[in-house]
Structures are given as C-alpha cells and as structure tokens.
Amino acid sequence: LSLVGSEMCIRDRPRPYVANVCVADRCRRRGLARALVSAAEHLAGPAAWGYDSVFLHVHRDNVPALELYDTAGYDRLEALDVAPLRYLYKPLRSDAPDVAEVVAMARGAS
C-alpha cells in the first residue's frame, strides 16, 4: 500500500484555499489530480463548508497544473499574481463574486 496523491483544502475567510495537490509520478495522467481538486471543491462548497468559491495558486512554470485548473473552470486573478505564482479562483455557486469583485476584495476595496 502506498500513497498515490493528496490535496489539502484550508478553511479560511473569506474563501477556502486549495493547497498542495500532488499525485505520484507513476500515477499521473489517470485523472487523480482532477478527482482530488473536485473533492476539495465539494468539501469547500455549498453542500459541506458552505463557501461560494475557492482559491489556489500555482507556479507559472507548472504547465500541467495550469492546464488542469483551466479545464476545471478556474479563472486567473492576473491582477493579484506575484511572480512566479499565478493566483486562480473558481466560483462554486452562481451568486459567487466575479473576478473583478474578488480582486477588489483582495485589495481591500468595497
């Protein structure tokens, strides 16, 4: 028995944060990362913790992860990027803030 993947969803205000999604090299390209991200979204979402969206960050050179999050519906928060990190956001409900509202909240605007 061995660990093939893991993720962590951190419960934080105002939005939860998906962190440390990883899959063992020998188990990649099988949909495990997508399943882990989906599980984190479900945990954070309306059915469990009750949040309307999630955040995460990824290194700009991690192309497979960027592609995963793009196909999973994450939006880039380009205005919040701090090299070499890219910040991403995904609404989990239709009434979640849009990207512009999220950026304004992050910058302390109302």
Task: Explain how this protein is built.
Helices cover 27% and strands 26% of the residues. It is α+β, with helices and mostly antiparallel strands. The strands form two sheets. The chain has a three-stranded antiparallel sheet with strand order 3-5-4, covered by helices on one side. Strands 1-2 form a two-stranded antiparallel ribbon.
Estimated share of beta-strand residues: 25-35%
Class computed from helices, strands and strand pairing: alpha+beta
The proportion of residues forming helix, as a percent range, comes to 25-40%
Count up the helices.
3
Q: What characteristic shape results from the CA principal axes?
A: globular
Strand order of the largest sheet: 3-5-4
User: Which stretches of 5+ consecutive residues score pLDDT under 50?
Assistant: none
Average of per-residue pLDDT values: 88
Tell me the series of helices and strands, N- to C-terminal.
EEHEHEEH
N-to-C CA distance:
50 Å
Compact description:
The protein is an alpha+beta fold. The chain is built from three helices and five strands, in the order ββαβαββα. It has a three-stranded antiparallel sheet with strand order 3-5-4, covered by helices on one side. Strands 1-2 form a two-stranded antiparallel ribbon.
Blueprint (SSEs and pairs):
Elements: E1 5-10, E2 17-23, H1 32-44, E3 53-59, H2 63-71, E4 75-76, E5 85-91, H3 99-106
What features would you highlight for this structure?
26% strand, two-stranded antiparallel ribbon, alpha+beta, globular, three-stranded antiparallel β-sheet, 110 residues, 5 strands, single chain
